[in-house]
Amino acid sequence: MTDIGLGGRTRLDRDRLLRLLQDYGVHLGVAVLLLVNIAFTPHFLSAENFRTQAVQVAPVMIVALGMALAIGSEGVDLSVGSVMALSTSLLSLYLGYGMWIALLVAVLGGIAVGVANGALIAYIGVQPIVATLALMVAGRGLALVLLPQLKDVRDPTMASLGSGDLLGIPYLVLIAVGLALLVAFVVRRTTFGRQLLAIGDSRPAAKLAGLPVRRVLILVYVCSGALAAIAGVLATARLTASDPTSLGNLMELSAITAVVVGGTPLSGGRVRIGGTVAGAVLIQLLTATLIKHDVSPSWTQIAQAVVIILAVYAARERGRR
Amino acid sequence: MKPNTFFRRISDRTSGHAAGRASGRVSATTLLAAGLAASLALTATGCAKSEDDDSGASGDSKSGASEGDAGQVASSPSAGADTCVIGDYGAKKLDLKSATVGFSQSEKEANPFRIAETASIKAEADKRGVKLLTANAQSQFSKQISDVQDLIAKGADLLVIAPLNSDGWEPVLRQAKAKHIPIVTIDRKINAAPCKDYVSFIGSDFVEQGRRAADRMIAATGGKGEVAILLGAAGNNVTTDRTKGFEQQIEKKAPDLKVVFKQTGEFAREKGQQVTEQLIQSKPGIDGIYAENDEMGLGAVGALKGAGKKAGDVKIVTIDGTKNAVRGIVDGWIDGVIESNPRFGPLAFQTLDTFTKGGEVAQDIVIEDSAYTKDNADSDLGKAY
């Protein structure tokens, strides 16, 4: 804006390049990582490997979808990891009635946390980061009260949900892709999606325009809670055990990273579902690459930090629009 | 660059809705939110029916301490080891039966080790008819400090502490010193002078556990091939010690056995499973996996099952001795489990008893951990916690 030193034309090109990089950098990153792995990682090009990566990324991706909605409304949902823990506790407690009822209860638990989050934010006016932080602490606590320690899940339907497949594609991946398409549709084509983006862009303006700000905000956090609960159920099915002490730990950070790396600005008003999915895949591939090459765990953390910093840098550039 | 606009935008928004209408409706809505959370908690347990309700298998994890023969045995300390008597410490003799013992647990009883540890202390206090005060620091060190201070204030004559950290105990130690309260620490050591600031430390030798796991792995693989290590949480002395012992022993006894993969599973089953999935993709020929706790080992078993491997294809050795892992040996998936015995009750109270009667106790009491293999897994399953 005020860089006088640069000539008009070069500046335009640089801007366009930067914009392109911001919008498609994550896809570029995924492509680069794939090529690097194909070249340097033994046994990388196998169906079994891609299956493993897809199955591992599915829960993160589902949580990130809900997080993208929250961030799009200029908020954030820190409670997603705890919701996963809560959902696994509830699932274990109600599995005696059969998987479907247990699943329903688990998702209802996630919705209840979402309602609490949304009510705190929309009605009391608590900052999203504070409101969801409160529910993050409370949710994990509640999960541990309900189920104090790891418990095995022996239900055969759950086991087949975790490891079964349809035409070679694991159920987990099918569900994740289905949810991604659904959320993308909601954001792009429904009134709710447009209202969400309008509120994210400017809440006062949305209010003045007569949008149902509170209802939409509550619905946003309900979606996020429900998606996190589904992710918790799927993670439980995969592990065939309910482990509320560790399930979903630091999940909120992975999800935020996926969303931000995927090009959704933290300032709200814009949601990129395709980018979010790619962001989750990018982090999964990065972790997988480092683990497969047996890089020391401390370096893995540093590499993840670098990706986050790059993403935040990009987000800052976007904030200037 | 216009950082100002960015900040102004933020501050506009914060003052916009946070401060604006916070006051009036707060109490009513807070009540509503609290009520919502409470009702959720109530309904959640109200008509719950878990899988175990039918089979009646629940609660077997809690019976840990009642197993008669499962208490700890101290590995006999060498003759020259430092000991402590009551005169050196500056406390008064007293009768344990009429004393009050305070127990401070470090982490919440959410994993089998902590559950069995607390249960064992409680069971032994019951057995001896000693009055026991307990506190749990929920993994917060500042809470543990105030917990112990509370225990002292409530009139504990003797203290058993499972420390969360090794450092930072000075305020508590000074307070205990002023009241001449003997302290025994279990499972982790504190950095202070034994027989001056505290009486004894009772615990396992984690390096030795690593060495014994290595012996087991060498026996299982025949001392040749490639093995992977699933590390515990980073920056934890249990992780470093168990890794050190394992690697030293492998290097010394079986140079043909190569450690080709070392990644953290953070002591959790899910992470152990994910890391093992990556491992068997990139190194399908791996011969053995050493998991630094049972949970990660069980995660590895899950990953191997998912990848279509058969029991015994990859040798797994773990440390801890939980029921699930010992069952894994019976099923043939796990080759050996090195025990880390959490039942400190009998030994801790015996130490306090001897000490308060004026007897001599060792400053470092290293307990003897047993091990589970194919030979004893079935018969000793009851001893696992």
UniProtKB/TrEMBL annotation, chain B:
Principal location class: other
Domain annotation Periplasmic binding protein: ranges: 110-343
UniProt KW keywords: Signal
Superkingdom field: Bacteria
Cellular component aspect of the GO annotation: cell envelope
Residues covered by region (Disordered): 1-22, 49-79
Coiled coil region boundaries: none
Biased composition (Low complexity): 56-71
UniProt keyword annotation of Signal present: yes
One GO molecular-function entry: carbohydrate binding
Subcellular location: Cell envelope
Homology family: Belongs to the bacterial solute-binding protein 2 family.
PANTHER family with a match to the protein in the record: D-ALLOSE-BINDING PERIPLASMIC PROTEIN-RELATED, GALACTOFURANOSE-BINDING PROTEIN YTFQ
Protein name: Putative ABC transporter periplasmic-binding protein YtfQ
Organism: Streptomyces aurantiacus JA 4570
Taxonomic lineage: Bacteria, Bacillati, Actinomycetota, Actinomycetes, Kitasatosporales
